[in-house]
Amino acid sequence: MNPRLDALANAFATPVSGPTYRPLTRVLAAVLVAGLLGWGARMLATSPDPFDATRLAAAAAIAIALLWPMPMLLFGRTVVDATGVRQLGWMGREIEWTQVQRIRFVQMPMSPRLMISLGIGRVKVFYSGSPALDEAFVRATRLLTAPMEEVR
Prior knowledge:
Layout lengths: L2 H9 L4 E4 L3 H23 L7 H15 L2 H6 L1 E4 L3 E5 L4 E4 L5 E5 L6 E5 L6 E4 L3 H15 L2 H4 L1
């Protein structure tokens, strides 16, 4: 068996789970979306012809575009376990450790993230909303990038 996968299985025998985004990020996003929707509703209500079909269709499209990612942003969960990393929610994603070609933990002020490349296509990004997930992301990165002598 692969020593890296064995080390990951041991490190994450108990899954680490937490929110996808930090509380401040979730609050800021919710306030921004609510403000934009309120502003748009006010603009629509004060327009000379508020029931114009084109304006209503545009307003509906914009509202849907703003509201579409909100459930994932507000209620999404990230799970790191022995098999891989998953982001649960509206637009979830999952990667098994055996698929990882390159991995990098990026510490950002409002939402640290784990960037994983599968070798082809674009990079998959998993967000961390808790210190426990930050630690799990760092541990997984270390186990997958360390020289083989350190892993054993």
